[in-house]
Amino acid sequence: MKICVSASTNSLDAPVDPRFGRCTYFIIVDSETMQFEVIPNLASGSMGGAGIQAAQIIASKGAKVLITGNVGPNAFQALSAAGIKIVTGASGTVREVVEKYKREELEGTSAPTVGGHFGMGAGRGRGWRQRRWEP
User: Fold this and answer.
1) Taking Cα atoms as reference points, which of 89, 88, 99, 86 lies closest to residue 13?
2) What pTM was computed for the model?
3) For residue 66, how many other CB atoms are within 10 A of its CB?
4) DSSP state of 131
């Protein structure tokens, strides 16, 4: 089975990235052989819709499970519609979380874990505008 993990770098020893739509890489791991494919997340720099684009990327690669830290509402809906099981709250390395999943130590989630635009960084997101504080 293909398991996708949001990752900060491009190896099985990479830390899990807590952001799904704006993670740096997706690591698609074959749970039986532990062979993997690294996919740069081209959606990470999008001004909007990163979660939906990210969901489309991993669905197109045949992932059946996503392991990540958090997932927002739009990504959650897109992943669910694609039939991808979503596991959140993961930490450690890609290798560690895949092994935990195989031992049934990680459970899926039935709802988004963060609001929209999570992980965009300070000063970005819906409704943001520069403010000037005056005395």
Assistant:
1) 99
2) 0.82
3) 28
4) -
Q: How confident is the model at residue 87, as a pLDDT?
A: 96
> What does the pLDDT read at residue 115?
63
What tokens were used for 59? 């669905």
Confidence bin at 28 (pLDDT 50/70/90): very high
> 25 is written with which tokens?
């890489």
C-alpha span between 101 and 67 (Å, rounded): 9
The full set of domains in the chain, from first to last, is 2-102 (3.30.420.130)
Contacts of 37 (CB under 8 A, 6+ apart): 27, 28, 61
**What's the per-residue H, E or C state across 23-72?**
CCEEEEEECCCCCEEEEECCCCCCCCCHHHHHHHHHHHCCCCEEECCECC
Please classify residue 127 by burial: count the beta carbons closer than 10 Å to its beta carbon, then call 0-12 exposed, 13-18 middle and 19+ buried.
exposed
Q: What is the pLDDT of residues 86-118, one digit of tens each?
A: 999 999 999 999 999 999 999 898 878 776 555
In the sheet where 65-67 sits, what is the strand order? 36-40, 25-30, 2-7, 65-67, 85-87
